[in-house]
Structures are given as structure tokens and as C-alpha cells.
Specification:
This protein is mainly alpha-helical and 126 residues long. The protein contains 4 helices and 2 strands, in the order ααβααβ. It starts with a helix and ends with a strand. The chain crosses the membrane at residues 7-35, 72-104.
Length: 126
Amino acid sequence: MSLLGNIIWLIFGGLIAGLGYIVGGIGLCLTVIGIPFGLQSIKLGFAVFTPFGKAVVELDQANTPLRIIFNVIWLVLFGWEIALAHLLGAGLLVITIIGIPFALQHIKLIPLSLFPFGREFRPIRP
């Protein structure tokens, strides 16, 4: 089911969204200060490509002072806009019965888009 969901997701907007994150991340990596944020944007791009069958996992060192500072900077500059876009996408998709599984994937991506430092998107083990 995850494979079929990911294929449909890519066809109907996931590919464009993921490429947008990756292109934005590459743009951020052009500056020395933007490299950590660019890497997180690229990580989000790959997470957006295949969200079905994966979950957000918090790492052991997720709340170190540096990661907290980076998460606050990310939240103020980029995170709230990305989370709002996922929320609006979920709101539009949940209107139809067919779109509900895809809306749930957008909602699953919101915590990762708000606080990407110290979190990963990993496959769910049955």
C-alpha cells in the first residue's frame, strides 16, 4: 500500500514539492551561514517524496542547545510557512474522501517542517 500511495503522491504534487525543497536547499547552501538550513531543506525534500510508510523520529541528541537555536531560527524564518502550506494542503485534501490519506501525510510532515533539527523521517517497521 505504501508503494502505491507514494506513486500517487508523486504524480499529484509530491514530486514538485520535493524538488522545490531541494532547489531551495541548494540555494541556501550557496552561503556559508545557510548550509545547515539548506541541508535540512534537502532532507525535507526527500521526506516529501515518499511520506507513506514513514514516521518522524526524534533523535537522542535532539534537544542540544545548538539544535534548539537552529530550530528557533528555522521556525521564525522558514518553518511556519512550510507548516502552513502543509496544513492548507491537508485542509484541501480532506474535503474529499479519496484525499484523506494524503491529507494525513501532510499532517505527518508538519512537525518535521517546524523543527527539523534533531528529527528524522524513518521507515515504519511492522
